Amino acid sequence: MLRFGALSKRSGVTRRLVLSASAKINLALEVLGKRDDGYHEVATVMQAVDLSDRLVIEDSEILEVRTSAPDVPSDGSNLVARAAHALREAAAVSRGARIRLDKRIPVAAGLGGGSADAAATLVGLSRLWGLRWSVARLDELAVTLGTDVPFFLRGGAVLGTGRGERIEPVVGMALPLVLVNPGVGASTPAIYGGVTPAMYSDGSHVRQMVAALRSRRPARVAASLYNALERVAAAAHGQVAQMEAALLAAGALGAAMSGSGLTVFGVARSFDHARQIRARVARRSWRCWAVRAIRGPAIRMRRER
Ligand code: ATP
């Protein structure tokens, strides 16, 4: 449990917010080159999906974060704690909050779970503390917490450029998907460290994906999947190719890795088809979900009291 800051006055009635924070997948991810600041220039199509963490936020005199997830840091480096601390400082708030994080999104899995939690913390605490900050203002904090956090403040389907933090919405569709995670995490910097100039491309895969989404045809989306990081991850982790082969053998229209991995996803014709595929690929050592692409916000207020 993390505790920050001094005691402050209670405002009266205890308020309680419940939020869901959805994961994302990268339908296409290209590395365009390397920048002077050491980061890679990317072009990506990110899509929110309905596999989500849950955050329960309550009024409190102090700021505290609890999570039962064993593979998430339980110190100040937890992204929920970092987001809460950053917002409290930026908004000069003296109140606290008690935040409970229930993880369902696998950790270090290329699904952006930590960034989704950070975005949900910003949305939830600005509501709890009555800040009425615009998304544009939250963005300024979001980008200091992680490249993908601005995406989660919006959700749906977006085109991401720069390090992935410059985003613009694109037309999305209710895509049925199957996610498969091997239960082993991958380090994002280590995967990017294996990228060579031969893996750079010109943005054409991402443009193709944007057009495929506009067609609203799962088969066309499946044919346009692309991830430049997949070769790096697959060379070090044999499970990536095994999971993709299992998805295709089970009837997926196409399969690819998400982000820096190691989660892979398959595109299905319908949600029923996704559930059939999920049942066929399920193995004891893999975690599998049939999910849908989300067209609205990635962060949703589930209950408020
Ligand atoms: P990235 O955003 O770096 O591509 P990812 O999507 O693969 O990451 P995350 O689940 O966001 O994976 O975890 C990235 C790292 O952040 C992990 O090393 C994890 O320990 C740390 N982390 C900190 N806070 C959280 C959190 N609330 N949930 C998940 N991971 C967290």
What top-tier CATH class of the largest domain fits best?
Answer: Alpha Beta
Low-confidence spans: pLDDT under 50, at least 5 residues?
4-11
Counting H and I runs of at least 4 residues, what is the number of helices?
10
Instruction: Tell me the structural class.
Output: alpha+beta
Bound molecules: adenosine-5'-triphosphate
CATH topology of the largest domain: Ribosomal Protein S5, domain 2
The Cα radius of gyration reads 19 Å
The figure for the number of domains is: 2
Give an overview of the whole structure:
The chain is α+β, with helices and mostly antiparallel strands and 305 residues long. The protein has two domains: 2-30 and 51-150, 2-Layer Sandwich (Ribosomal Protein S5, domain 2); 171-292, 2-Layer Sandwich (Alpha-Beta Plaits), CATH 3.30.70.890. Helices cover 32% and strands 30% of the residues. It contains ten helices and 13 strands. Strands 1, 2, 3, 4, 5, 6, 7, 9 and 13 form a nine-stranded mixed β-sheet that branches. A hairpin with a 6-residue loop joins strand 10 (254-257) and strand 11 (264-267). Helix 1 (79-90) runs parallel beside helix 2. The longest helix has 16 residues, at 113-128. The protein is globular, with a radius of gyration of 19 Å. The two termini are 24 Å apart. Mean pLDDT is 92; it is low at 4-11. Adenosine-5'-triphosphate (ATP) binds next to helix 1 and helix 2.
